[in-house]
Amino acid sequence: MSSSAPQDTAPHRLWSVDEHLADVLAAVRPLEPIELQLLDAQGCVLVEDVTVPVALPPFDNSSMDGYAVRVADVQGASEEFPAVLAVIGDVAAGSGELPTVGPGQAARIMTGAPLPPGAEAVVPVEWTDGGTGGGAASGMTPASAAPEGAGGEVRVHRAAEARAHVRSRGSDVQAGDLALAAGTVLGPPQIALLAAIGRGTVRVRPRPRVVVLSTGSELVQPGEALAAGTIYDSNSFALAAAARDAGAIAYRVGAVADDAETLRGVIEDQLIRADLLVTTGGVSVGAYDVVKEALTSVSAGDEAVEAGRVDFRKLAMQPGKPQGFGTVGPDHTPLLALPGNPVSSYVSFELFVRPAIRALMGLPASEVSRPSVRAVLKADRAIGSPAGRRQFLRGAHDPVSGTVSPVGGSGSHLIAALAHADSLMVVPEDITTVEPGAELEVILLG
Question: Is the pTM of this model over 0.90?
């Protein structure tokens, strides 16, 4: 296997958060579009406008269970003086041949059924006696149990205006209208619309496949017993869940021991199913930080190939100072190497990995990062921040009052506090103290 030293870019320079993010996004290209079945396209981004081939609804239809009538026949109807109409048949949803409603006639009609010729309105069954000859009906007897309900007489107790309880053809969308624009993320309502206009497939960018690897010989899988000096692996679970939340298909790989050759082999194995690789741990300056050591070259089958360039940097941020980014393997698959402390790892994901995933999906630049708002700090005392570092603190945001409160301390190991936060409070590099009442940028995580 050929090898080259991992790139430690300007080791004495502190890179800004914005510089690092710009480098990540500059190297990530949207995935190539493919044609997918509707359910397989859920969560994907459309790459073309979809127009409506047929109007919705495609015909005038009833919005109620009741009787299709002519307006003149029920004019002035009341409980004391009901309009008595001859029932000429049933019109159910899916009916083909329809009866024609003439003067003094009505057709029993179901919700969604087409309005029959001659009818101008629908009176709900609750406005009638339901054909029983008694008082107001509460519903219709099933046709299979009482087929005679499709005939006889019905007494209508209220008048109806023209088009009452009728859904007009094209009242939802007209043929030729834009149904969905390119760039739309397909959720359940969008899938429903595509199905309603008859689309069986759609052209989209696929959801990125993200492989998450955590490193560290001290890591034990949840559910197993802890030995002395070991901890449970939470990072790979957190990052895999975060990748799914961002819109990706996530594959979590169990913790890899602190051995460069082992890690290199795992990365090689995972390249076949990865559009993006994310590692956590092993990027600092310790003797067992194996990610730097391992990311020298990655083999493709029997042929050794250059891994591409992987830069390791120190960023002017807290938490998450050590970061790595580059490409590996024959296809130059993007890889982001995140620090191992749980909060550092998660904050780094939100700032760098989530935007990379969203860029792979083909979303516009305005939608790759989490939204942010301005909020007033609500705290008992001032918050300190290191000079020259952009600090990201866990917070609880109250959109009603426009305030944000700290959750837990600033330690990068405090994962319990992270679980109770819904935002990140951002303290700029040139500010070392934030007093209660001051306004801050707040990144919304929900």
Answer: no
